[in-house]
């Protein structure tokens, strides 16, 4: 293999740039020519593929977002669109493709490989940490630290005013951002989609704690675990507390990556280059017990992500 390309796809995540840098530098240092694809599969289909050099990735290790930009390309679900994308790669003599994204992006990569013979390697890049085969995805650590910053600030003002803070975080159908930030931010209640909860009971509990003299509480609510306005109403009416809702939104997707995400990016990026040089295809990279692993895309995607029940149960003992 002489030429490879890199793209980022789906929602951006802090550490994607550091990972692009690791791929590009490790590939060039191994004698490969590298190309960058702009805006994920959209750019692959529309031939937005340009050469990258060591210099192209200067001064990006610390930057959030992705210099390659990202997009969602619905047409990629059609085989004829994927054939067009593969033809664009083949016309440039590119045999290998690194896809940094989530499960949707990996599915597209798998089809591209199966149908058109392009060697693909996937790197998990999403703040959601929603892929079962890896302990961590790129961007998750930074996103959780951003949430922690917000919880710290909210705690100051909520305590001063004897209020309840209901903080809504991202994660799609996965409660990991809520669970990790809730534990490390000292939240009293953590609501995740994977575990049923009784909001009336929580509201009663807040009422009782108020009677005991505890005047402020923090509830972290994961996306997909309920409607914040409905929860606010129930808690306010039953407990009599002044509940303030904060939806953190896309602030969680930006920012300078943490040490953990930069290290993950370096390890994932260099391993992707190695796999392509070894002629491996249809692989995704992950981290298990601090060891970099790789497995077949189909096998990886067949695993169902579950919440860490031990961590979840531990959280209830800490408030
Ligand atoms: P993520 O990769 O973060 O899960 P998405 O689910 O939005 O994000 O997927 C990103 C892109 O991957 C989609 O816009 C599409 O181009 C491609 N993709 C997703 N699902 C499929 C699929 N079933 N077949 C082919 N391509 C897909
Ligand atoms: O997958 C990352 C993520 O930020 C999810 O947590 C969230 O549900 C979704 O993307 C938001 O997507 P968009 O940026 O398209 O609003």
Largest sheet: 7 strands, mixed
Poorly predicted ranges (pLDDT <50, ≥5 residues)? none
Main sheet: which strands, in order across? Answer: 3-2-1-4-5-10-11
Rounded to the nearest angstrom, the radius of gyration is 22 Å
> How would you classify the quaternary structure?
single chain
Give the integer mean of the pLDDT values.
Answer: 97
Sequence of secondary-structure elements? EHEHEHEHEHEHEHEHEHEEHH
Ends: how far apart? 55 Å
Supply the helix-strand structural class: alpha/beta
Count of helix runs? 11
What is the strand content?
Answer: 15-25%
Q: Which descriptor suits the 3D outline? A: elongated
Topology, number of strands: 11
Bound molecules: adenosine-5'-diphosphate, 6-O-phosphono-beta-D-fructofuranose
Classify the helix fraction into a percent range.
Answer: 40-55%
């Amino acid at each position: 293999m002489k030429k490879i390309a890199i793209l980022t796809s789906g929602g951006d995540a802090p550490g994607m740039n550091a990972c692009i840098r690791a791929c590009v530098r490790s590939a060039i240092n191994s004698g490969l020519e590298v190309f960058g694809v702009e805006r994920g599969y959209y750019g692959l289909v529309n031939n937005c593929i340009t050469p990258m050099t060591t210099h192209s990735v200067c001064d990006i290790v610390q930057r959030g977002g992705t210099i390659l930009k990202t997009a969602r390309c619905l047409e990629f679900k059609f085989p004829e669109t994927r054939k067009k994308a593969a033809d664009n790669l083949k016309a440039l003599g590119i045999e290998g493709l690194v896809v940094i994204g989530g499960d949707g992006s990996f599915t597209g990569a798998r089809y591209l490989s199966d149908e058109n013979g392009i060697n693909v390697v996937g790197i998990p890049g999403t703040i959601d940490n929603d892929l079962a085969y890896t302990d961590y995805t790129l961007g998750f650590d930074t996103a959780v630290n951003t949430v922690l910053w917000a919880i710290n600030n909210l705690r100051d003002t909520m305590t001063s005013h004897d209020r309840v803070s209901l903080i809504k975080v991202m994660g799609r159908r996965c409660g990991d951002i809520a669970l990790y930030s809730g534990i490390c931010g000292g939240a009293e209640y953590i609501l995740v989609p994977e575990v049923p909860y009784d909001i009336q009971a929580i509201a009663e509990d807040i009422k009782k704690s108020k009677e005991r003299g505890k005047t402020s509480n923090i509830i972290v609510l994961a996306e997909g675990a309920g409607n914040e306005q409905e929860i606010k109403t129930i808690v306010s009416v039953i407990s009599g507390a002044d509940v303030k809702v904060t939806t953190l939104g896309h602030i969680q997707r930006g920012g300078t990556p943490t040490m953990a995400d930069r290290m993950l990016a370096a390890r994932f990026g260099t391993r992707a280059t190695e796999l392509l040089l070894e002629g491996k295809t249809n692989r995704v990279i992950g981290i298990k017990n601090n060891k970099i692993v790789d497995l077949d895309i189909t096998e990886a995607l067949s695993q169902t992500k579950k919440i860490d029940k031990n961590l979840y149960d531990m959280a209830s003992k800490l408030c």
